[in-house]
Amino acid sequence: MTPEMVKDRERFPKLWNMDGWRSRLLAIVIDEAHCIHSWGNSFRNAYSQIGDLRAKAPPGVPFIAMSATLPPNILHAVKTSLYFKNDVIIVKADCDRPNIKYEVRQFPTRKGCILDIIKHFMDFAKTIIYFDDITEMSKVCRYLHKEFSHKRRMIVRYFSDLSADAKRKRIREFKEGGIRVLLSTEAAGMGCDIPDVVRVIQFKCPENISTLVQRLGRAARSPSIQGHGILYTLPGKNQHQKQDRHLDAFVTTTECRRQVLNSAFGNPPASLENMKCCDICDKIKGSSGTESSLTVSNVASRIVRWKQVSISAAHPKHVHRTKEQQQEANERILKWRNEEWARLIAQSEIYSKDSVMNMKTIAILVAKFGTVQCHGAIASIFEGRWQESEPGGQHRLEEILIRYNEEINSSNAVNSNKEQVNPQQHEEPLSSRPQDQQEILSPDRLRFPQSEPAELPSLRPSSPAQKKKALKRAKSNDMKFVHYSPNKRGKNSK
What we know:
Layout: H1 3-6, H2 12-16, H3 19-23, E1 28-30, H4 35-38, E2 63-65, H5 72-81, E3 100-106, H6 110-121, E4 127-130, H7 134-147, E5 155-158, H8 164-176, E6 181-184, E7 199-203, H9 209-216, E8 227-233, H10 239-243, H11 245-252, H12 257-265, H13 279-288, H14 311-314, H15 323-345, H16 353-356, H17 359-367, H18 377-381, H19 393-419, H20 423-426, H21 435-441, H22 464-476
Helix pairs in contact: 11-12, 15-17, 15-19
EC number: 5.6.2.4
Protein name: DNA 3'-5' helicase
Domain Helicase ATP-binding: 1-88
């Protein structure tokens, strides 16, 4: 039943007073709970009063709130509105839609957006175009009818003021294919599960990131087809974008848009092999010149939020670090994780420390932290499969590891200088050697030729006369043996 039925003062109070019905009440389930925040403070105030049922429900009857899109701020608002306790059990599932490609197109005027839609997306594939303003929707519809007068029956509006019969007829024709382009407000939001919608366009920024994901998620409800979700924005004219930081990050990021959504909703990092991801990843893929590379896993060469990735960050080389240095890096990363978790837990209890970075990811980073010498290196290590839990978190982690690597590099440079031996400084002085070694090593005793000596003449006799002369000289130089006797001092004896 709708929240308005719950507030019906004529019929519903009687139901709560029936003992038989109250005894069979097992739970109160609120589906699409994000509407409590999105609609409860605007055009459907009954959503904000659902929490009043706690005063009427029997004791012990649980409340269950379900939604596919509950970022931390909206989750906190829903918990407050439904009077959940802080220890309420929260079950999270991955809400990523891998078969939808995301794209943001910006134009300075509304007419520019319309002309771009006509140029690129009016191929009459099954399309929903969402508007927040019914007046703006009517103007765009008239413009499209004028441009495609021969197919104007395929382009219709859908909004809450239509009669129930008109709504059913248009939805039925849209499902069957007679209507190809449906211009709609939120009336074609929840419950519009048409499996073969190829394209969803959001005209200007919606109220928050949750509404955007809900609407773009109407594309490709069948997992067998590829969908396309496009957001048209008018720079400087989107107040909602400025109020929701996740929506602003989705529009202005220079990184992967899917990773921004995963970070906003706490999804695990995505890795879409050979699939369409977003317009930014397509540009990176095109610049890489290869068709086999995945848009998300190629983010190592992209421009990151803070500064352009340098060559060393895009292609980091392994830098050896000791076990002691890795242990110190592990402690610094854990300290950073605790600080980031403290920031997130202040917003909502939905986060755990693993939501910031789990231990497996930390182990990979510790083993390769030596390559983090500049900003963007972490994105290269994980090839875009890890995104900071909060804008700025990855930047702070890189600053910590860059400073630690600088400390290690400085220490290694000092030790290297000490190990370099200078012979003139470390030669043992001559005076410290023994006396006999001093004489041998004395400079006066050590004379080395300054140049190569001239070739000495051969001493071998070359003629008979020279041989005879050499023999005579040898006989005259024969050694004479003299025997000395103590009794005949000074006399020779033979």
